[in-house]
Amino acid sequence: MPDTTGKTITCKAAVAWEAGKDLTIEDVEVGPPRAHEVRIEIYYTGVCHTDAYTLSGKDPEGAFPIVLGHEGAGIVESIGEGVESVKVGDHVVALYTPECKECKFCKSGKTNLCGKIRTTQGEGVMPDGTSRFKCKGKDLLHFMGTSTFSQFTVVADISVVPITDKVPMDRTCLLGCGITTGYGAAVITAGHGGLEKGSNVAIFGAGCVGLSVIQGAVKNGAGKIIVVDVNEAKKSWAEKFGATDFVNPAKDLKEGENITQRLVEMTDGGCDYTFDCTGNVHVMRSALEACHKGWGESIIIGVAAAGQEISTRPFQLVTGRRWKGCAFGGVKGRSQLPDLVQDYMDGKLKVDEFITHRQSLSGINQAFQDMKAGDCIRCVVDMRKL
Ligand SMILES: NC(=O)C1=CN([C@@H]2O[C@H](COP(=O)(O)OP(=O)(O)OC[C@H]3O[C@@H](n4cnc5c(N)ncnc54)[C@H](OP(=O)(O)O)[C@@H]3O)[C@@H](O)[C@H]2O)C=CC1
Ligand SMILES: N[C@@H](CCC(=O)N[C@@H](CSC=O)C(=O)NCC(=O)O)C(=O)O
Ligand SMILES: [Zn+2]
Ligand SMILES: [Zn+2]
C-alpha cells in the first residue's frame, strides 16, 4: 500500500444527500488529519437506530449532505500534529461521546458527556469548523464526530480509543454504541454507579440496547429482570440474555389492566429501576410510573424525535420517583471502553450474539431495511467489501 500520510485519500463512502432518501455509494475525498486529528481506515461499522433517525429528517441537528455512521472500528492510517493518544496501526473504536479529560464535564466526575467539541460536532464539522470530506466538489458534513460509513474517516483525537488487536473489529465496532449504551446504563448510570444487587428491573424494548441493559442487570445481580416488548419474537432473545420475565403489552395484559399496573403488581409496589430503550415518549411515561414510590428510578435511553415531549403528573416525582437519562450508557470512552473489551475477552460480556445480519458497503441500504424488520439485533457492515 503506498504511503498516504499527508495526502488526500479517495475512497468509497455511503453518502446521505437528502433526508428520507437511500444512501448512495460515492467516491469521496478524505483530507489528511490536521492538528489533534486522526484518520482511520474503517473496517466494520454497525448501523444503529440513531443513524436511521437522523436520515429520516426527524433529528433537529440533522443536516445534509452527510456521512452518517457512529458504531465503527478500524485502524489508524495517519495522525495529525500533536496527537499522542494513538499511533499509526493502532486498532481503534470511534467515540461519538469524546473524552478530553480536561473540560468542566470531564473533570466533574459526574458525567461522561464531554463539552470540548460538542458544538462543532453537532454542526457536522471538525473542531476547527471545516470538513475533511468532499464529494463532487461539495463539502460533506461529519456525523456525531465519527462518520463511520466511509472507508476512511477523520475524527478528533479525543473521539477515538485504542484497543487490543486481539479482538476482531466486527465485534469491537458494536462497542462503539448499542452494547456499551445499554450495559453502561445498568452498571454505571443507574443508582450511584450502577444498580444494586437484588434490584427489581423493567426494561422496555429488547433491541440491542435493551438486551445490553439485561446483561448489565445480570452482572450487578438484579432480582427480577422484566422485559416489556410488543414484539413477541423478543421473548426468546430476552430469556437468552437472562431476563426472568417477559410481558408483551399487546397480548399479555388482563382486561382493563395497563403495563404500569402489571409491573407494580409483579414487583410488590414498583420497580427499583426501569429503562426506556424504545424512544417512545408514551413508553417513557409508563416506565417512570412503574417505578417504586420513594426511590424508583427510570432511565431514558431511547432517542425521541424532534417535537416529542415527556409528561407525567408532577406527583410522581413528588412521591420520590426519579427520571434520568444517559448517552453512551454514561461510559467514558477513552478511560473505560478497553475494560469492556477485556470483559468480552474474559467471556463476561456477550457481543457475538448481537450480530444477526451482515452486509457489504454497497448493501448498506439493505442494512437499514433489515434493522426495521424486527428480527435484526445488529447488522454489521464490512466497509472493505463492495
Ligand atoms: N442514549 C443513547 O446513547 C443511545 C440511544 N439509542 C436509542 O435507543 C433506542 C433503542 O435502540 P435499539 O435497541 O437499537 O432499538 P430496537 O428498535 O432494536 O429495539 C427497540 C425494541 O422496542 C420494541 N418496542 C417498540 N415499541 C414498543 C413499545 N411501545 N413497548 C415496548 N416495546 C416496544 C421494538 O419492537 P419492534 O421490533 O416491534 O419495533 C424493539 O423490539 C433507539 O431510540 C435508539 O435511537 C441507541 C444507542 C445509544
Ligand atoms: N441530535 C439528536 C440527539 C441524539 C442523541 O441523543 N444522541 C445520543 C446518542 S444516540 C446514539 O445512538 C447522544 O449522544 N446524546 C448526547 C449528545 O450530546 O448528543 C437531537 O438533537 O435530538
Ligand atoms: Zn447508536
Ligand atoms: Zn471533556
Distance between the termini: 19 Å
Do you know the CATH topology of the largest domain? Quinone Oxidoreductase, Chain A, domain 1
Strand content: 15-25%
Q: Catalogue the unreliable spans.
A: none
Q: How many distinct helices?
A: 12
Distinct ligand kinds:
NADPH dihydro-nicotinamide-adenine-dinucleotide phosphate, ligand LAXINWYW, zinc ion
- Overall pLDDT, averaged? 98
CATH architectural arrangement of the largest domain: Alpha-Beta Complex
Helix content range of the residues, please?
Answer: 25-40%
Q: Structural class, please?
A: alpha/beta
Write down the domain tally: 2
* Biggest sheet character: 7 strands, mixed
C-alpha Rg (nearest Å): 21 Å
What overall geometry do the principal axes of the alpha carbons give? globular
Q: Determine and state the CATH class of the largest domain.
A: Alpha Beta
List how many beta strands DSSP finds.
17
Considering the protein shown, what is the CATH homologous superfamily of the largest domain?
Medium-chain alcohol dehydrogenases, catalytic domain
One letter per element, helices H and strands E, the order comes to EEEHEEHHEEEEHHEHEHEHEHEHEHEHE
InterPro entries: ADH-like_C, ADH-like_N, ADH_3, ADH_Zn_CS, GroES-like_sf, NAD(P)-bd_dom_sf
EC number: 1.1.1.284
Domain Alcohol dehydrogenase-like C-terminal: 209-341
GO molecular function, one term: zinc ion binding
